[in-house]
Design goal:
One of its GO terms (molecular function) is hydrolase activity. The protein has helices at residues 45-56, 75-86, 89-105, 121-131, 173-185, 219-236; strands at 5-13, 16-24, 31-37, 60-63, 109-119, 139-142, 160-165, 190-195. The protein is of the alpha/beta class. It has an 8-stranded mixed β-sheet, sandwiched between helices.
C-alpha cells in the first residue's frame, strides 16, 4: 500500500469559504488528477475516503466542498440550499471551477489529465463543467442525471459514465430518458448503468440523521458502482500514461 498524504484546503466559491480535502499519492512526480463532488448534504468522510482511495491508486484527488464547510443533515435545509443551486448552471459551474482551480494549482497535478467524479449535486456540477467546455478526460455521475441548457452538452468532449438506482424516485425513468437523449443528441460517448433495486444515494453508507424519502444504502451496488468508476478512470485516465 502506498503512502497517501492529505491536507485541508480553503478556497473561495459561491460567496463562501470552502473547505476541501486534498489527497496526494506517494512520490514527487506529476500525476493525473480527479475532482470528487459530494451529495447535496455536503462534503463528508465518505468523499474524503474516496479521495484517499484514489490517491492510493496513484491519482491526485480533491474532494470539494458545497456549503462552506457545513454538512446539511437536515433534509429541509439541504433542499433549501441545493434546489436553487441545481436550477442555476452558472452557480454550479462557479463552484466547480473554483475547486478545479485548486486542483490544477497543486504542483503534483498534471493539468492536462483531469477527470471529474460526482455524486448527486456533485455529479451535476461535474456535468456542468463538461457542458462549459472544460478539458476533462472523463466524467462520472452517480444519482446526478441532470440535463443542461440546449446545445451546451455538445461541448463535452470526454466519455460520460452515469449510474442510478432503478428505484430512485428522485432520478426516475423519465429523467434518465431525458439525460440519455441529451447525451445521444450531442454525440457524447455515454454509458448509463441502472442498478436493480437500488434507491437514491445507494452508494452512501447509512447516516444517523433523517433523509429524504427514496434514499437508501445498497451495499452490493455501492461496491459495484465504485468499481465501475475506477474502471472508467483506468480506461480514460490511466495512472501510467
Amino acid at each position: 500500500m502506498t503512502t497517501v498524504t492529505t491536507r485541508t484546503i480553503e478556497y473561495a466559491a459561491d460567496g463562501l469559504t470552502m473547505i476541501g480535502h486534498l489527497a496526494l499519492p506517494a512520490g514527487v512526480d506529476r500525476r493525473p488528477a480527479v475532482l470528487v463532488g459530494p451529495e447535496g448534504v455536503g462534503l463528508s468522510d465518505v468523499e474524503r475516503r474516496r479521495a484517499d482511495a484514489l490517491a492510493e491508486l496513484g491519482y491526485v484527488a480533491l474532494a470539494f466542498d458545497l456549503h462552506g464547510g457545513r454538512y446539511l443533515g437536515d433534509p429541509e435545509e439541504m433542499l433549501a440550499r441545493c434546489m436553487p443551486l441545481l436550477a442555476d448552471p452558472d452557480r454550479m459551474r462557479g463552484i466547480g471551477h473554483a475547486a478545479l482551480d485548486v486542483l490544477r494549482a497543486e504542483p503534483r497535478t498534471d493539468p492536462d489529465r483531469i477527470a471529474a467524479v460526482g455524486y448527486g449535486t456533485g455529479g451535476a456540477i461535474a456535468l456542468e463543467l463538461g457542458r462549459d467546455g472544460v478539458d476533462l478526460r472523463a466524467i462520472a455521475t452517480v444519482n446526478g442525471l441532470t440535463t443542461g441548457r440546449p446545445g451546451e452538452t455538445a461541448r463535452i468532449h470526454c466519455p460520460v459514465w452515469a449510474g442510478v438506482g432503478s428505484e430512485d424516485p428522485i432520478m426516475p425513468p423519465a429523467q434518465r430518458d431525458a439525460f440519455t437523449a441529451e447525451m445521444q443528441a450531442a454525440g457524447v460517448d455515454w454509458r448509463l448503468v441502472v442498478y436493480g433495486g437500488a434507491l437514491h444515494a445507494f452508494h452512501h453508507p447509512p447516516v444517523d440523521h433523517s433523509v429524504l424519502p427514496g434514499v437508501g444504502h445498497h451495499p452490493q451496488h455501492a461496491q459495484r458502482a465504485w468499481r465501475d468508476v475506477v474502471d472508467l478512470l483506468a480506461e480514460c485516465l490511466p495512472t501510467a500514461e
